[in-house]
Amino acid sequence: MKVTHNDISDDDLEQLFNLIYSQTKRIGDLLKRFNPIVSSRGKESSFVIYDRIKLIFEDLHARLESACIRYTIDGNKYIRIYGDAIHFDQVFYNLVVNSIYAINHAHKQSGTIKVDINYNDNNDVIISFCDDGSGIPEGVADKIFEPFFSTREPTSDEGGKGLGLFIVWNILKMFNGHIFLDKQYIKGTKFNIFIPKQEEQNE
Length: 203
What we know:
The protein has helices spanning about 10-40, 50-60, 60-65, 85-105, 165-175; strands spanning about 45-50, 70-75, 80-85, 110-120, 125-130, 180, 190-195.
């Protein structure tokens, strides 16, 4: 209406369009982050945990290499679980990206990410994931799985919208699993993931 009545300048119009674009992009980014926990289940199958985690590290190889971050995946290389492999991938994509940020934030010249995969005595799956980054402040440890909570700067290139660990927590619920922060770990950040023993599935 303002354009029709010549009540808006070209500069003001450009500024308005830029504002609309930036807000639309922000909404789009938020929807993408929520997608793994609100979309319908994809194809479910039996898959090897080690192989899926290794694939994530390979996909993020360039970022890990540029930050001089080494990684190891130890333990049982043959453990299988049943579910949506793409959703499972998102868990470790988010964790690795968080670790890259934490190691960079610690201003370290190099860093390490370690993953260990095993069964416990009840044949439940136990996965530990740790890095030697800046760690999580004690005062916020109980809030890290809440939506929109973040310890990052909002203007950080790495995000800062506070949905990464919330998505991880919700995806693991799809596997009847849980993720816990190891508050005793002082060399960075350590998460322990628990996925209960599954019944045999017919694919």
